[in-house]
Amino acid sequence: MFELNDNIVRKNILALKPYSSARDEFSGDEGVFLDANENPFGVLNRYPDPHQKELKEKLSKIKSVPPGNIFIGNGSDEVIDLTYRIFCNPGKDKALTFSPGYGMYEVSAQINDVELIKVPLNQSFQIDFDIVEKYLNDKALKLIFVCSPNNPTGNIIDNIDLLLQKFSGIVVVDEAYIDFSNTDSSVAKINEYPNLIVAQTFSKAWGLAAARVGIAYASAAIISLFDKVKPPYNVSGLNQKAALEALENYPEFEKRKAIILEQKLWLEKQLQNIPVVKKIYPSDANFILVEVTDAGNVYNKLVDKKVIVRNRDNLVKNCIRITVGTPDENKKLIKELSEL
Ligand SMILES: *Cc1c(COP(=O)(O)O)cnc(C)c1O
Q1: Dihedral sign, CA of 76, 107, 185, 252?
Q2: Which residue has the CA at smallest separation from atom 3 of ligand 1?
Q3: Within 6 Å (CB) of ligand 1, which residues are found?
Q4: Domain of 306: which CATH number?
Q5: Among 248, 276, 298, where does a domain finish?
Q6: On the chain, which terminus has fewer CB atoms closer than 10 Å, C or N?
Q7: Whose Cα sits closest to atom 14 in ligand 1?
Q8: Could you tell me if 160 and 297 lie in one domain?
Q9: What is the position in ligand 1's atom list of the atom closest to the CA of 214?
Q10: H or E segment at 320?
């Protein structure tokens, strides 16, 4: 049985009495507010809702998850960082992730002085359970990060359920790209698996990378730990408003997503006819991993033409990662690539 006790949560976090803000102690809308040392003049002069109530309620309806199972952070990078801080004692505990994968799990591990074990994905970029299982009984292993659809490979990771069943620590499923996929989100499983955290973001399909709004879905007990460790007003009023407006304009979200997915198909088709392209990996995201004859060379030549892609050669030999752009941007990319 999974229990959120001090075998899994850091003792100092369990014991922590969080900062209580002025808006925690009085949260009504009306009155003369002389409690938070704010400036009485201006438009952005008041502190934002520390609990992002409106945003959570709206998300709750769209995602069919109660507000008590939602945490909003300053981008999912903050969600990743807080996860380390809640569960991993610096200099002692370990985390595990897969390679090739998203680089922030490692940077955040280093910042938090946590040893990160990187397990290679197999030839199809799927989890190799024979390797992973060797690590699962280590008492110091507290966290596993899985990115699905995976960055930079673009594929959905299968058998996440198996991982959740075999591992008695926390599994974070990073779903930054899930809205581009037809595969179901793991969010529906947070009641079934008390050790599951699902991270999502407004940065990709919702088009709000500049706003920095990330989400964690998990059991109410895990969410209350996030609430304990977050800075009091961690999501700015401007960002809460931007996210809320995006959610209220669902038809625009659907429309843009449809264009991106249609453009991805177009790009995949065009890339097949380009001489330097050796392999196009299938993608469930808004980017395509492409093996070329010489990634460094292709990258530099594209930069000369003012087209910037991501050279992922250090992660997957001779691969570049291409984000799906607007129809004009994609045409420009294909034109320059075919002239190499
Ligand atoms: C882009 C991306 C994110 C987004 O992080 P934000 O901090 O929310 O912008 C998270 N995870 C992965 C795998 C990504 O590629």
Answers
A1: positive
A2: 176
A3: 75-77, 102, 147, 151, 174, 176, 201, 203-204, 209, 214
A4: 3.90.1150.10
A5: 248
A6: N
A7: 176
A8: no
A9: 8
A10: strand 319-323
